[in-house]
Amino acid sequence: MLIQRWFGSLVNRAVALVTIVVLVTALIVTGAGSLLSRTELEQQARDQVATIAELVSLELDDRLGRRLEILSEVAVSLTMSETALRRRARVIVQQQVALQHEFDGLYLIDTEGQVLAEYPEAYEQTGLNVSHRDYFTRVASQLTPVISEPFVSNVRNHPAVMIAVPVFNHDGRFVGALGGAILLEGDDFMEDFSDLTVGETGYLNLVSHRGTIISHGATGEVMVPVGREIPVMTEALAGFEGTVQTQNSLGQDSIMSVQQMAQVPWFVVAVWPTQEAYAPITRASDNFVWILFAVILIVVPLALWLFRRLMAPLQTLAIQIQERYQGTRTIPVEVAGGREIRRVAEVFNTVTETLHQEQQRAESILGVLQEGVLMLDADGMIRFANGAACRFIGVDDNCLGQNFFDMVTIKAAGQPWHRTDFLKGADIDSLYATLRNHRAVEFDIDLTLLHIRQGLHNEQLVFVLRDDTERRREEQRLSWEATHDSLTQVLNRRAFTATLVKLLGEAARQDTPSVLMLIDLDHFKPVNDQGGHLLGDDLLRRLADLLKDSVRHSDTVARLGGDEFGVILPSCGLGPAEILAEKIRAGVEALRIEQDGRSFGVTASIGLTELTIRDSGPREVVARADEGCYVAKSRGRNAVVVVPVPPDSGDSGD
């Protein structure tokens, strides 16, 4: 009973499962401990390559040193005069049996660089001048033994290295040089080096500090430039010595060890591809992978089975919660399992009941709101709607289950908005739009949109619709009052000035000039004084109507203040404008108002002028037209005066 009770807790079951996992992990970690040997194996491979490079370097140094030493001893024994050296050259060379075994070619050279004698004579180098060779230049100038850089010899163009030592007479004067040639493709000096390998696929390179490959163990190349694309080779040319892991000239990942030589400015490079060098590590890793794979095949199914058994009550709980959410389950959730799962079920039932009460309260509140509130699914089906929302849609009763986008058409800025526009777009704080429902009733609305779980299969859209008709009407009214004269219903001075500024900006693009007409009423004050302000106001309204009836739809009529009116005639020209002004003048003169047996009327002094690109602003144009009004008044009033545009100063004559 105690054990059963202990396992009744989901936490305890999880602890037991974790314990098992930890034990299995410990076994795997123990097996993986063998991987720690990888570092040691890698170090052994690096040490092996470094040792080979060092041994080969020492061996080559020893061979070169021994040959240099023998050649130097023979040169010392040849102390004689230059004449004797020339006379006995062939005999001297033929007698050097020891040197003949150590070198592929033996040469005696005079001070001028001419070969006096050679062995073997089959090379036919006797009489050849080698003064241009680097080794002769150095031995003649330095008077010390020299080991040359690799060069192409005259012996069938074979690559070779020359060891040259100076020969002196009894007075210590330089009388010639004794040289021993080593053919890099010969079977003596380089044979053993060329056949050496590192493992089965590794090889050795011998390179001079001048960047010339003396021997390439992989390709057999000689006398070719070293590849500078390998950083370690570039560093070796500068004196680097050590072991690194990099790519070789064949593009293989390799361990490369560089060992500088002591006798000559050469270095040995031992190269061992890591594929072979780390083969034991790879095999161990493969074995470990197979073991790990076997463990996984056993542990994973077992862990899955145990976990599913432990989590089965939670799966049942999830199904019941989903049914409760979708409304197909009306009773509280009931689930077996551990104490923790039963506690979750109890909390869920409590929360669900509380949310149900809160939902009813929220629906009651939303029901009395004037704003329409809807919740839609991704297809546009209405899942919740308050009464105001249904009225917007044009449904008298419950509109749940209807497709919102089939019932209404929404336009904003003249463009229709579809379901995909709302789905793919961001949340909307405020969108001024027009909603037309299926009954053809239109509403000016302010729309707010909120996405819930956007992009998921259970995405929902929450719309809030506010009737914006009154606000827009008020906005239109205020906008109209800001631009119109309240008495005459024509534009006021502010709107008139804005229109004039706009036309001045377009003057350069107009083929026919626009015209400004200013109308100043004559004798208006007596009408106000004798007939009263109401009569004056009535006269102003009739004059405004006369002006509106006289001009085109594209023309602008404005009251500028008191008894002054302005008319803007776009693309009219002075000729037609003057005719229109005379018509307006005559109409004003003919307009009479009767009151108490008396007749009242006024006349008009009218000034006309064109709008040009030379005008700096509306003030300049208005001043010019106003000047026409003054001239008309000075001529007795009731007249039309055209004020021409002053000539451009740049166009003036003498």
Automatic annotation (TrEMBL):
<feature type="domain" description="GGDEF">
    <location>
        <begin position="512"/>
        <end position="645"/>
    </location>
</feature>
<dbReference type="InterPro" id="IPR000160">
    <property type="entry name" value="GGDEF_dom"/>
</dbReference>
<protein>
    <submittedName>
        <fullName>Diguanylate cyclase (GGDEF)-like protein</fullName>
    </submittedName>
</protein>
<dbReference type="Pfam" id="PF02743">
    <property type="entry name" value="dCache_1"/>
</dbReference>
<keyword id="KW-0812">Transmembrane</keyword>
<dbReference type="InterPro" id="IPR003660">
    <property type="entry name" value="HAMP_dom"/>
</dbReference>
<dbReference type="InterPro" id="IPR029787">
    <property type="entry name" value="Nucleotide_cyclase"/>
</dbReference>
<keyword id="KW-1003">Cell membrane</keyword>
<keyword id="KW-0808">Transferase</keyword>
<dbReference type="InterPro" id="IPR029151">
    <property type="entry name" value="Sensor-like_sf"/>
</dbReference>
<feature type="transmembrane region" description="Helical">
    <location>
        <begin position="14"/>
        <end position="36"/>
    </location>
</feature>
<keyword id="KW-0902">Two-component regulatory system</keyword>
<dbReference type="Pfam" id="PF00672">
    <property type="entry name" value="HAMP"/>
</dbReference>
<feature type="domain" description="HAMP">
    <location>
        <begin position="308"/>
        <end position="360"/>
    </location>
</feature>
<dbReference type="InterPro" id="IPR000014">
    <property type="entry name" value="PAS"/>
</dbReference>
<dbReference type="InterPro" id="IPR035965">
    <property type="entry name" value="PAS-like_dom_sf"/>
</dbReference>
<dbReference type="Pfam" id="PF00990">
    <property type="entry name" value="GGDEF"/>
</dbReference>
<dbReference type="InterPro" id="IPR043128">
    <property type="entry name" value="Rev_trsase/Diguanyl_cyclase"/>
</dbReference>
<dbReference type="InterPro" id="IPR052155">
    <property type="entry name" value="Biofilm_reg_signaling"/>
</dbReference>
<dbReference type="GO" id="GO:0016301">
    <property type="term" value="F:kinase activity"/>
</dbReference>
<dbReference type="GO" id="GO:0005886">
    <property type="term" value="C:plasma membrane"/>
</dbReference>
<keyword id="KW-0472">Membrane</keyword>
<keyword id="KW-0547">Nucleotide-binding</keyword>
<keyword id="KW-0067">ATP-binding</keyword>
<dbReference type="Pfam" id="PF13188">
    <property type="entry name" value="PAS_8"/>
</dbReference>
<dbReference type="InterPro" id="IPR033479">
    <property type="entry name" value="dCache_1"/>
</dbReference>
<dbReference type="GO" id="GO:0005524">
    <property type="term" value="F:ATP binding"/>
</dbReference>
<feature type="transmembrane region" description="Helical">
    <location>
        <begin position="288"/>
        <end position="307"/>
    </location>
</feature>
<dbReference type="GO" id="GO:0000160">
    <property type="term" value="P:phosphorelay signal transduction system"/>
</dbReference>
<keyword id="KW-0597">Phosphoprotein</keyword>
<keyword id="KW-1133">Transmembrane helix</keyword>
<keyword id="KW-0418">Kinase</keyword>
